[in-house]
Amino acid sequence: MDTFPDENANSGPRTLRRGLQVLRCLQENAQTGLSVTQLARITGLQRPTIYRLLSALIEDGFARSIPGTKRFMAAGAPSPSTAQRDPRIELALPAMQKLAAITGDAVFLVVQDKHESISLWREIGPYPVQILATFAGKRQPLGVGSGGLALLARLDDESVEEIIALNSKVLEQYGGMSPREMRQLVQNTRTRGYSVVGNYAVRGALGVGCALCDGKGKPLLAISVTAITERMPASRQREIAGLIQEGLRGIADKL
């Protein structure tokens, strides 16, 4: 159990760092909030410590509980029941929740915005070690994450080259990615039928993603599953891709 002895000169700064860590997690999950169990799993802190930190954050107005639930959220975030959510979230949420429960890992809903990808939603699975590679609202160059790569690979060659050129100056910030490597990842995704990206956006993580397209082949959204690399041998990558594709078919039936 975590303790904070008064005689420890580092107790104050350590408590502050942990409190900020909890607050950051709440801010990154503003649309859904998090339970104490989820916070403990993400931060690695003991539940009694989480309760103490939450109590202090609530008392000072930095966090609040969500009525009728066991979850908490950062102060100032809109309530999940009243938040104006992207309709694509409502379409994908059942499939994402099922994927998170089956795989145990983190599931992401990703869409394209010009030469970038945007993560619209994140579902956290029950496996105790999570790679939370992104959060709702996060932008990054299209293709550096598995969801974005799945979308990029479904575009025509001219669009792919244009997007890679626009992102060329920032790709190196993602694990030393280069335009040449991005082109190879796109080709691999097209050949395989699903994307696989490891150790670029987040060290020690590997993601698998698939895209849903409209009747004209335009990518609408992508769903990806990310886990620690050790949990993602090739056989499991194929299995997860199949589960994602099954979920996307269910979403397509609703369109």
Question: Could you write a compact summary of the structure shown?
Answer:
With 255 residues, the chain is α+β, with helices and mostly antiparallel strands. 42% of the residues lie in helices and 20% in strands.
The tally of beta strands, per DSSP, is 9
End-to-end separation in angstroms reads 49 Å
- Radius of gyration from CA coordinates: 19 Å
Q: Could you state the oligomeric state of the chains shown?
A: single chain
Please state the average pLDDT score.
88
One letter per element, helices H and strands E, the order comes to HEHHEEHEEEHHHEEEH
Which word captures the global form? globular
Name the strands of the widest sheet in spatial order.
Answer: 6-5-4-9-8-7
Structural class: alpha+beta
DSSP summary: helix tally:
8
Low-confidence stretches: 1-9
Largest sheet: 6 strands, antiparallel
In what range is the share of β-strand residues?
A: 15-25%
The share of residues in helices is 40-55%
What key attributes describe this structure?
255 residues, alpha+beta, 6-stranded antiparallel beta sheet, 3-stranded antiparallel beta sheet, 8 helices, globular, disordered N terminus
Structure notes:
- With 255 residues, the chain is of the alpha+beta class.
- Helix content is 42%, strand content 20%.
- The chain has 8 helices and 9 strands.
- It has helices spanning 11-28, 36-43, 47-59, 87-103, 146-153, 157-167, 179-192, 234-252; strands at residues 34-35, 63-65, 71-74, 106-113, 116-123, 139-141, 195-198, 205-213, 219-228.
- The chain has a 6-stranded antiparallel sheet with strand order 6-5-4-9-8-7, sandwiched between helices. It has a 3-stranded antiparallel sheet with strand order 1-3-2.
- Helix 1 crosses helix 3 (47-59), helix 4 (87-103) packs antiparallel against helix 8 and helix 5 (146-153) packs across helix 7.
